[in-house]
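Notes continue from the previous slide.

Worked example: a multi-chain complex. Inputs as given:
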Amino acid sequence: MTTAPVRREGAQHPSPPGYDVELSKFNPLPRVLCHDTFDSPTHGWTELLGNYDGTGDLDTVDDHMWDFRPPQLSSCSFFDVGTHGTLSGAYALKLATRPHKGHTAVAIRRLTMAGRGLVQIETHFAFKPEANVGPPRQSGRAVSWDGNNHPSEAEFGCFTVATDICSDGGIRYHNVARYQNTNMDNEMTRQWMYPVVPEPTPRDHFEGKFSLPYASDFTAPNPEDWRTFGEPTELCVNEVPTKINWHYLRWLIDTDARKNVELQVNDQVMDMRDVPVPVYPDRYRTLDNLLNFYFSVRTHADVRNFLFLDSVLISVDW
Amino acid sequence: MRSTTTAVLERKAKVRESFTTEPYELPWAGEARFFVHALEVGGDGTELRFTTQISPDGLHWCDLDGVEHRVDSVGVTSWLVTGFGQWLRLSCRVVGQEPAATVRIYLVGKS
């Protein structure tokens, strides 16, 4: 792990012609594929839904993949302060779970690849559990309120950024990076994680390889299949569940080598080149050049968890 | 160009008792419309009575108006919603002997 260099000289010079304030919030590769700000609608970030049969019978969707909830545009308003607003404007893309332990909300962006090489996704994000207005909840027991720490810290489960990529004769894989804030017992862990198995797919289910219940961890359902990388990280949750502090995230992968490269979150840069990217043992059709990104948020308590995205930028070097 | 978005609030809800949908934020929308698609309606005299609810904070709710939208057979029912705040949801009161229904619920927002 290294710390990102801080450049100071730029502030002393006037902005050159064509300077783009919105793009200046990012550090893109040469070609920008998507720059999504959410003062206009959802820019292709849509709910993930599992596959279904040729009659449109949604009862054929896997039990753990039919309820990932629709993303929504939020002004980040709360019971105590009203409208908070975002980094870049009025609205953020908000992913919201149900108040059901294990439930996951997922927004996915679907692209294809016109080349191979470096691919980077950047975002300014915030995460929060839903505020509690009432008696103490058991799920917040791991953190006592002392005017600085707050029980809500223990009520946020995890968020994940991941890919779904398929190329070169049906070779399919997922790069995955997860921030696990708590374990399933609502104890603070604050660690970065990755799975060592590929995500179970609807075809796996169709072929009888697994059957997962509602609210399973769809990225990798067995906790034993997750490993940590980097150092445990304390992010800026800022004391109560209704303060939104925007974090910068930059994640770089290599679709030529089918590898992770690095993950930056604020001033922390984690080398991910040794973080493996599991490939499915069999090949997939109809997915040529697939390049999907998703963000997900999973609650580990019967409390709604939210992931707010102020803006997202995807760029490539091809 | 106006903006619009469609959210599937319930995809295949198996309704046996009264419920509310998950909160959904539409702070940017000047108007909205609910669609309730009843896929199956069984039981003896099953009737679903939907009420539009609004909230200032996503936590505390009240009815938007006094209108109940009744669903007692398969098909699509829809109504316009205006004059709301940031959050919308539906409250569904279920009546009938051993009521059973499957519904899909859409919320469409338009600027």
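Summary box: The first strand of chain B starts at residue 4 and ends at 15. The two ends of chain B are 9 Å apart (CA to CA).
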